[in-house]
Amino acid sequence: MSRETILITGGAGNLARQLTDELAATGHRIVLVDLPPADPGSPHEYHVADIGDRERIDSILAEVRPDRVIHFASLLSGGSEDDRTRAWQVNVDGAFGLFEAALARGVGSIFFPSSVAAYGSPLPEIVPPDQPQWPTGLYGVTKACVERLGVYYHRKFGLDFRCLRLPVVVSRFAPAGAASAYASRCFVEAATEHKFTFRVRPETRPSLIYVKDVLAAVQRLIEAPSEELTRRVYNLQALSPTAAEICQAISRRVPEAELDFDPDSETVQLIESWPVRFDDTAARTDWGWAPRFDLDTLADDFLEELLDGDTDGRHLRGTA
């Protein structure tokens, strides 16, 4: 992919802040959009804006003239349930306004990360890409809506919409408000606090993916030639360990950590409605997706960084 101007909404968030350095390292101009405050130490152009402010978003696209947009801006699962009106405004109305602005300003492509939360239950053991979606949480409802919006804009107007349904992402920056954060916080808190309480059952096992595999997948998909894509929305599968297996993997590496379980019924119900395993055949066939990390290599890599005190994520740069 030649040098591009890439605008990232939700630019201060979990995946965005890690993907930014990956893309910048390959020579792209990166422009970030998010709520205040801007990071004064960031070397990248930063525009302060609410994704729901259509006039502001349109003016930024008119000024920046990005080749593509990576749309991460979203209210997460916990916040969506706490404020449904705001969740709809940010997650759905914000995406609609962004698609409209992209058409008006000649943006070539939009990438959107969807989620396991876009499904509901019951589900088959292996979830096919066209499995009916009846999400149980509002966050998942909004993700499914934006998937459909993106496909509509592709079919109706030719917008190059690309989307990944991401499993639960394991990352140091996993936001505390997300129900899925347990899969990340267990590693972080075991390494830093030497204790963690799982609020899910030992048997809970949604599909997971390590953040370094996410960064690699996003880059591979956005760089793939459009004519090789047979879909606009792809499933990804990496690993599906139980919470007990994660706990055991941590204990083997941080034996002094006190780990226990105190399931929260609401959290359990939500997460156990999510897919255990995705059928990601199309991603593997169309653009060469294959995960690098299983549970052992994930635990080795992640805990090594955490125990080495890599608090700003420098080790994440250039690795995907």
Can you give a write-up of this model?
The chain has 320 residues and is of the alpha/beta class. It has one domain (5-316): Rossmann fold. It has 11 helices and 13 strands. It has a 7-stranded parallel sheet, with helices on both faces. The protein has a two-stranded parallel ribbon with strand order 6-13. Helix 6 packs across helix 11. The longest helix is centred in the first third of the chain and has 22 residues, at 84-105. The radius of gyration is 19 Å and the shape is globular. The chain starts with a strand and ends in a 13-residue tail after the last helix.
Query: Which CATH first-tier class would you pick?
Result: Alpha Beta
Gross geometry: globular
Helix/strand class: alpha/beta
Tell me the number of structural domains.
1
- List the strand order in the largest sheet: 3-2-1-4-5-7-11
Radius of gyration, CA atoms, in whole angstroms: 19 Å
Distance N terminus to C terminus? 16 Å
**Which residues form runs of ≥5 with pLDDT under 50?**
310-320
What is the fourth-level CATH superfamily? NAD(P)-binding Rossmann-like Domain
How many beta strands in the DSSP annotation? 13
Largest sheet: 7 strands, parallel
Helix percent reads: 40-55%
Q: If classified by CATH, what would the architecture be?
A: 3-Layer(aba) Sandwich
Number of DSSP helical runs: 11
- The CATH topology name reads Rossmann fold
Instruction: Report strand %.
Output: 15-25%
Mean pLDDT: 91
The topology string of helices and strands comes to EHEEHEHHEEHEEHEEHEHEHEHH
